[in-house]
Design goal:
alpha/beta, TIM Barrel, eight-stranded parallel beta barrel, two-stranded antiparallel ribbon, 10 strands, 15% strand, IolE/XylAMocC-like
Length: 313
């Protein structure tokens, strides 16, 4: 397809050029959840449109959606002025040492591609306690003390191995329908893990979905914030989701994650709190929209990038 026109870049004197926050987007914002799905846009179209919307940074998304040949992917991204910030993996480390080898095999292929693309982060999402499509309860939503020890200890091991072998920083992503979700569970996880080995990927939408205050978390645990996902929740839809006890997949299909600035949390104070940390930080836009019509994401991406520039990002 024809590459969308590139909006003009902010001038050197604009607020965004003075910020240490690097804004990007991800396949998730184009409705991509799986390596291959007929309801998802082709990877070439995603790359064309994310570049055309004015973003310079992307995440890899589900392994196998974008080309896994580093040379091909480098050619395709560089030709569109794009760079890779991170790869993403799902893990179930609370299950203990028995899952380590299987987990590492999954991590290693993602980490190797991320490293080859010049990325410096690996986003780690804990596994779901209920099926995100059917709502089937897969395990207890509350971890036992032993499972917490497995989760924290093996996440530290993962952080060490990923850093030593691939030069990446592990950033753990609190997520709806996982065991690291609410303020209580997120702070418990942070208090029990080594800051040198494990940082946090704060997803503002998921944290709000689970009742958390992103600004408070940044102000309280600023040294642990290693990465941001920018996302908003529609409060009215969220109220329905909670009342009906919907799993995350159907909640997304209903539109629980919405286009900013229509939802919560307000992103201006989140970005202000992040800037106050005075550290280099990625802020990757993620608006869960699976499934969605193929022509829907690009106009949203254009408006969202414009909105974030108005916030100084």
């Amino acid at each position: 397809m024809t590459k969308p026109s590139q909006p003009s870049s902010p001038s050197p004197s604009s607020p965004s050029s003075l910020s240490r926050i690097r804004v990007g987007s991800a396949p998730d914002s184009w409705g991509v959840w799986f390596p291959d799905d007929p309801r998802q846009v082709p990877w070439q179209r995603f790359l064309d449109e994310v570049s055309g919307a004015g973003y310079e940074w992307i995440e890899l998304g589900p392994y196998g959606y974008l080309p896994t040949d580093p040379a091909l992917l480098a050619e395709e991204t560089a030709g569109r002025g794009l760079k890779v910030s991170a790869a993403t993996v799902f893990t179930g480390l609370h299950h203990g040492p028995a899952v380590w080898e299987r987990t590492w095999a999954h991590v290693a292929e993602n980490a190797a591609l991320a490293q080859a693309m010049g990325a410096r982060h690996l986003v780690v999402i804990p596994s779901f306690w209920r099926d995100d499509k059917t709502g089937e309860v897969l395990e207890d939503r509350t971890l036992t003390p032993e499972q917490w020890r497995h989760l924290t200890g093996l996440t530290e091991r993962l952080g060490h191995e990923v850093r030593e072998r691939y030069g990446l920083r592990v950033v753990v992503h609190p997520h709806a329908d996982t065991h690291v979700d609410t303020e209580e569970n997120v702070t418990r996880f942070l208090d029990a893990t080594d800051p040198e080995l494990v940082a946090l990927c704060l997803d503002t939408g998921h944290y709000a979905y689970c009742g958390g205050d992103s600004v408070k978390l940044i102000e309280t645990y600023g040294e642990r914030i290693g990465y941001l996902h920018l996302k908003q929740v529609d409060p009215a839809v969220l109220a329905q989701v909670v009342a009906e006890e919907l799993p995350f997949g159907p909640a997304v299909a209903r539109g629980v994650m919405c286009e900013p600035p229509a939802g919560v949390p307000a992103l201006e104070p989140v970005l202000a709190a992040a800037r106050a940390l005075d550290v280099d930080l990625f802020a990757i836009v993620e608006q869960d929209m699976y499934p969605c019509e193929p022509d829907r994401p690009y106009p949203i991406a254009l408006r969202t990038r414009r909105f974030l520039r108005s916030c100084g990002a």
